[in-house]
Specification:
Largest sheet: 4 strands, antiparallel
Structural class: alpha+beta
Shape: rod-shaped
Distance between the termini: 119 Å
Number of strands: 4
Bound molecules: zinc ion
Order of helices and strands: HEEHEE
Number of helices: 2
Helix content: 10-25%
Oligomer: single chain
Strand content: 15-25%
């Protein structure tokens, strides 16, 4: 007598449980977001530093990082307080495409031209005072 209904009921229950377990299984395993490999891109864009800062290139005003140096040559001191200095530029304006310009006269420097500056050597912090470039300042002139 009621066996057909019973079989139907158990079949239905079985299917329901199977479906329930199925969705439960996928609800647990699926849907989780894959953690993206962290770290934003670090572009090598050169930010402009503060003029006069020892970490700023006086020729192209690029902000330099530790280990990046301005190519310059200092001469023996005449007065004892400061030294004459020729500044060619940094890696970004000598080897890169940053424009080399004189902060005094504004001229764009060509190859072989350089800035003339006075280097004040102080115990804690040296100061570089740019006098001009090889175009607006004559060689050997201190002032
Ligand atoms: Zn530079
Ligand atoms: Zn100049």
């Amino acid at each position: 007598m009621g066996t057909v209904i019973q079989v139907l009921f158990f079949t239905f229950a079985g299917v329901f449980l199977l479906w329930f377990g199925y969705t439960l299984f996928f609800a647990v395993s699926g849907g989780g977001s894959i953690p993206s490999p962290g770290g934003g891109k670090q572009g090598k864009t050169r930010i402009t530093g503060v003029p006069g800062d020892p970490r700023t290139c006086p020729v192209c005003s690029a902000k330099l990082e530790k280990g990046e140096r301005v190519k310059s040559s200092a001469f023996p001191s005449f007065t004892g307080t400061d030294r004459l200095m020729h500044i060619a530029g940094c890696v970004y304006c000598l080897e890169g495409d940053r424009r080399r310009s004189c902060p005094v006269c504004g001229a764009v420097l060509r190859d072989g031209e350089f800035l003339i500056a006075r280097l004040f050597e102080k115990p804690h912090r040296s100061h570089v005072h740019v006098l001009g470039c090889s175009r607006c300042k004559k060689h050997g002139s201190l002032f």
